[in-house]
Amino acid sequence: MKYNHKAVEPKWQEIWEEKGVFHAQDNSDKEKFYALIEFPYPSGQGLHVGHPRPYTALDTVARKRRLQGYNVLYPIGWDAFGLPTENYAIKNHIHPEIVTKNNIARFKKQIQSLGISFDWSREINTTDPDYYKWTQWIFIQLFKKGLAYKKEMNVNWCTSCKCVLANEEVVNGVCERCGSEVVHKVKSQWMLKITEYADRLINDLDLVNYPERVKAQQKNWIGRSTGAEVDFTTTTGDILTVYTTRADTLYGATYMVISPEHPLIEKWADKLGNMDEIREYQAAAARKSDFERTEVAKDKTGVKLDGVRAINPVNNKEIPIFISDYVLVSYGTGAIMAVPAHDTRDWEFAKKFDLPIIEVVKGGNVQEEAFTDCATGIMVNSGMLDGLSVDDAKKKIIEWLTAEGKGHAKVNYKLRDWVFSRQRYWGEPIPIVHCDKCGFVPLDESELPLRLPMVESYEPTDNGESPLANMTDWISTTCPCCGGKATRETDTMPQWAGSSWYFLRYMDPHNSEALASKEALEYWSPVDWYNGGMEHTTLHLLYSRFWHKFLYDIGVVPTPEPYAKRTSHGMILGENGEKMSKSRGNVVNPDDIVDEYGADTMRLYEMFIGDFEKAAPWSQASIRGCRRFIERYWNLQNNLIDGDSIRPELESAFHKTIKKVGDDIENIKFNTAIAALMALINDISNVKTINREELRIFSILLNPFAPHITEEVYSVNKLGDGILAEAQWPEYDESKCVDETIEIVVQVNGKIKTKLNIPVDAAKDDVLSLAKSDAKVAAAIENMQIIKEIVVPKKLVNLVVKP
After folding, report:
1. What is the pLDDT of residues 215-256, one digit of tens each?
2. Alpha-carbon gap, residue 598 to 772, rounded angstroms
3. Considering 253, 520, 721, 768, which has the largest number of Cβ atoms within 10 A of its Cβ?
4. Helix or strand run (H / E) with residue 87
5. Which uninterrupted H or E stretch holds 171?
6. Which candidate, 469, 607, 500, 553, places its Cα nearest to that of 135?
7. Taking a C-beta distance cutoff of 8 angstroms, is the pair 182, 175 a contact?
8. What pLDDT is recorded for position 285?
9. 523: buried, middle or exposed (CB in 10 Å: 19+, 13-18, 0-12)?
10. H or E stretch including 233?
11. For residue 768, is pLDDT > 70?
């Protein structure tokens, strides 16, 4: 009988949902297991076959854990605010709310067709006012603690999306969303003070099970370094402060560079003889993104300030000050000291502008190129530091700067505060009003949610304000403090907001009194296993950890870290090896695969396609191989015999497979787990039949990968009570997993002659006897003198011979 997936798969999806098989139980006596995926952004294109890979992977883990008796929470929701939906709505003249509703319906139908064991009773949507009420509530708590603030700043402005972008949303100088030019503007922005948590965001990585590369990405983005702040007096009497990790090289500082936007330039305007040239350079710099400005390989440009110089604090020598676009006003102090002898960029700049190059760490020829291998070495041309090691010089110079009042030790970070406001419509309204008397005031929490009002035009404005700025009736309100006239904030939150805490709402999604109850948070926290894309292991992970730590500090959540374990998956590429995209024409629709081959085949293939952590190209030919395996499993029923225990001839193979599949699922080696099941089915085929106990165990092992067909086989053949999803994961006997024989290589003079299966505990003399008695080996050593016999236990025998 041929397997009909079109009949079997919908049947079991309906049964699972009717029975609530995958609904997690709050406060169960069972050990809890919380598995989390990055909830999807529901785009108009729907899923392609790459999207279900992480869902299927954690579904495999979640299904296995349920079979092991865990109370599993595996939830799903929608990250539905943001620019893509709004841009689509504008282009097609459909309200973003309608677009979102339609996109979610399409995504949900596609995901459900795959049989992913999500707990749909906990489904959330970031655009639901009952959800974003709590996003707004968290923002108010941040505001009350001084961690949300507004300030004028230089921002990235997308000329097409017409909104502010965070630095991380600018890729290669263009908007990551639409690819349009990004320019700089000065705007008043809401900011979140993530820098307050910089140390903890690094230090607490010791508390979690993340891959080392993920931890490294987090640390590199935060960029903690130890050094000193040094004050350079200028000839105007003003102070220019720089941060440096190499205060020991101060004697080699032969010029300074400040950002074109540095505020002292305006103060010095009447003293500078070349302001026209400076203004021209400032305008050119404003047209570049931060990426373009800091690109290492670009030409070095700058303008020397005519009329103001700096004074090196260690030797009182006057040095020139330049403006150059590679120095950003938003990073550090907006000023640097330049040591061209020991920094390649400074060296190239110094050569271009004919500036002195003074060696201060011995080694290399600094007139020919910068000597940058100077983390250790001996100081030269450095006055009080001469003859000291670099480490000793660092300590001495900081002590001297501190004593002289010219500087002090400082820990610095690359991390910047989070630009949190967006000048768009489709986002959470920021629950703040502005009162001329009271300043910025949060809404009373009883007024939450502050609902996003319906607007006729949700297109971005040309002046850079949110579309909400045109809603005068909505904007006008009263101050929660004094009752006087006030205006609402018209910027909205970025898409990152709702996704920074969604994992908490799953724990108690219908709670109207809190983001989740204390009991639910204590039972389910932390997330046991979080899987997502490598592209989100820096920023999304950082932002959500920051919000969680803040909630921990104010007593809302019980753990300092949100995720105990994080793993990442590689992309599924098109058959041409490129990233799947509509523009490349290589997108594979999962609906087509499910229709032709079935959901179980697609699930199995996505887990078998290769190393889960690496990218892999889609192959239509290979998916047919997985369908054949599904059919082979189905046809085992044709040779079913009675039997309530594993037969001796299959005992070792079954116990090894139980162990391997279980271990491999936990270690995300899904491809090798499936390979083990394929090998086991070969072993079964060799003995021609399968008994009921063997089919029961095989079905349970295959179930996490192919849940529909295994449920059907389990049910039709009455292999156990109830349904397979509520069965028990088999256990293995370690003693039956040990090989009785082992394969070794036999060489003569280093050349392989044969391979032998020998008893695993065979003595050395027995191994040699078996090797020499093999026909191929015997022929090779006939009439030869054996000079040496080499036996590497359990690996090889090498006989060294001569005539």
Report:
1. 999 999 999 999 999 999 999 999 999 999 999 999 999 999
2. 53
3. 253
4. helix 83-92
5. strand 170-171
6. 500
7. yes
8. 87
9. buried
10. strand 225-234
11. yes
Q: Pull the structure tokens for residue 342.
A: 């020991």
The span from the CA of 451 to the CA of 650, in Å, is 64
**pLDDT (tens digit, 9 = 90+) per residue, 402-445?**
999 999 999 999 888 998 988 889 999 999 999 999 999 999 99
206 pLDDT above the threshold of 90: yes
Q: Which two tokens stand for residue 761?
A: 């505990």
In terms of Cα–Cα distance, which of 575, 687, 709, 574 is closest to 629? 709
Model confidence over 43-100: pLDDT tens digits?
A: 877 787 888 999 999 999 999 999 999 999 999 999 999 888 888 888 888 999 999 9
What is the pTM for the complete model shown?
0.84
For residue 635, give both structure tokens.
Answer: 């046809």
Torsion, Cα 314 320 322 326, to 10 degrees, reads: -40
State which amino acid sits at residue 10.
Answer: P
- In three-state secondary structure terms, 32 is strand
CA separation for the pair 594, 174 (Å, rounded): 38
Cα separation, 372 vs 363, in Å, equals: 9
Instruction: Report yes or no: 69 and 30 within 8 Å, Cβ to Cβ.
Output: yes
Continuous H helices in 189-306: 198-203, 212-222, 263-267, 275-286, 290-294
| Unique residue bearing structure tokens 């959500």 | 544
Count CA within 13 A, CB hemisphere, residue 72: 26
**How far is residue 544's CA from residue 703's CA, in Å, rounded to a whole number?**
33
| Nearby residues of 375 by Cβ (< 8 Å), 6 or more positions away | 390
Residue 530 · residue 566 · CB < 8 Å: yes
- Report how far residue 493's alpha carbon sits from residue 115's, in angstroms, rounded to the nearest whole number: 34
Tokens of 295: 């690109």
What does the block give as tokens for 380? Answer: 């030269």
Backbone φ and ψ for 305, nearest 5 degrees, come out as -75, 125
The pairing of beta strand 529-533 with beta strand 439-442: unpaired
CB-CB contact of 162 with 464 (8 Å): yes
Alpha-carbon distance of 120 to 23, in angstroms, equals 8
Using alpha carbons only, give the angle 283, 286, 292 rounded to the nearest 5 degrees.
125
- The Cα-based distances of 166 to 175, 176, 417, 426 in angstroms read 10, 11, 10, 17
Preceding amide of 449 cis, omega within 30: yes
Residue that the structure tokens 């008893």 belong to: 759
Element (H, E) at 158: strand 148-158
Q: Is the pLDDT reported for residue 660 higher than 70?
A: yes
Alpha helices in 116-258 (DSSP H): 129-144, 198-203, 212-222
**Within a 13 Å sphere around the CA of 215, how many CA atoms are in the beta-carbon half?**
14
In this predicted structure, what is the pLDDT of residue 459?
77
**For residue 289, what pLDDT is reported?**
65
Structure tokens that stand for 320 in this block: 């020139």
Q: Measure the CA–CA gap between 692 and 560, rounded to whole angstroms.
A: 49
